[in-house]
User: Fold Diaminopimelate epimerase from Sulfurimonas denitrificans.
Amino acid sequence: MRVTKYSANGNDFVIFHTFVKKDRSLLAKKLCHRQNGIGADGLIVLLPKSKNEIGGDKSKIDFEWQFYNSDGSEANMCGNGSRACAHYAYVNELAQNVMKFLTGAGIIGAVVDGDMVLSELTPPKIIDKEILENGKSWWLLDTGVPHLVYFTKDITKFDIAEARELRDKYNANVNIAFIEGKNLRVRTYERGVEDETLACGTGMAACFYRAYSEKVVGNDIEVYPTSGETLYLGVNDRTITFRGRVRSIFSAEIDSL
Ligand SMILES: N[C@@H](CCC[C@H](N)C(=O)O)C(=O)O
Assistant:
């Protein structure tokens, strides 16, 4: 089986395509393992449309995907993964550079322009604006997957033990964000990786959407994740778009595990 390793803002993924849709949780755990596998935050399985699916129900999409976190859990959406997957689809001639694909959260759009990839997420939902934990005011939002967001005055301090508790209590990813001029700095503890990752697209989108809703930032900003690789976020008719670089690190033929 041929797989490609990608990095999108420091969030890393193993990607392959197949016509066979089945549960690949165990494979995700094996491939994503940092010591015994390739090592990644997630596994993306791209499911191209078969000839008899062209037209019919699937006429609106170019392909479907399944996304797995490194612990084998399936997630409805992954923002950075969607950008890496769009690039993979384009270079492997599975889609044109402007495409739509089906995720667990719904149909999303993507545009590939060299190594810059833009994704348009499903409309964000604010679930709760009044969560008070440890004297901090959190919002719970859904940008395809659930995210807790807190605005901090010191982004250098991320209490991972607290993030773990909140992750379990709300079954959500946990983000702290710092307002830096017109832009945001964000750190994310990711559900399913069970640690802080170098970046999380839907997390950055959730922080942006809270900041935009509270009118502390405009509708077109830069967001800096832990990796330092800038993402450009915007909101239009309540849909969040985000754009940034992706890198194909290597492709390799591996024994199917
Ligand atoms: N890294 C992703 C989010 C992946 C899913 C998340 N860990 C979850 O289980 O909710 C992103 O870039 O959005």
Q: What stands out?
A: The mean pLDDT is 95. The longest helix spans residues 79-91. The radius of gyration is 18 Å. The longest strand covers residues 239-253.
